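Chapter summary example.
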Amino acid sequence: MSKIYQHSTLAALMAKQMQGTTTIGELLEHGDTGIGTLEGVDGELIILDGEVYHADEFGNINHITDMETKTPFATVHFASDAANDLELDPTDFAGLSDLQDQYAFKNNFASLRLHGDFKYVYVRAAPKSEAPYPSLLQVAQKQPTFTAENISGTIVGYFSPKLYQGTVAAGWHLHFLSDDHQFGGHLLETQTDALSGTLESFSDFQIHLPINDEDFRDHTPVLENLKQKIQSAEGGH
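The structure predicted for these 237 residues follows.
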């Protein structure tokens, strides 16, 4: 098993800590595959094979090549040959969620990467906020959504155990990127054709905290109803 690396925590975003606290260049030192967002919770990041793509609130996909671009929150890992190969029949988001039971990893972190054809994909992309920042729940209430039909692409993301709720969003957090790099975002629902890819479990979970950022050091976590607020902000999955 390999290592999953996460910069900052989801609870910090819930507590309005949306300032960029690490760079894309620094993030890629710890993984070539993953997901995240940009400063101000600006859209959705999809990281594949060391390339970083940004799905913005206007439905555009931007290729991020400036390594000084900042993020407040992201999760990455290095894709490994030790990952389990998957071949999936046509399914939906609920079917993808069932993988945690099929492969018995509900108490550990896992990554999922699947490629193929999709009958339907429904995504969202968080709108960029400016300081003073709102809460993540406030951002989620006005996030635009997008749909696509008969499209080829890749799902990438992570499963996180309930034990770490707050540090992460427990359950699945998946992003989508089309093969032509014209459509993508945070996956809310899908109807797929057959998919192939990999599933990998992790023995190590590393959290990198931005302790050099004064606002992060001094912020007060919002713990009341945190689970419910995270579920609402992340789309209910």
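To summarize the output: The chain has a mean pLDDT of 92.
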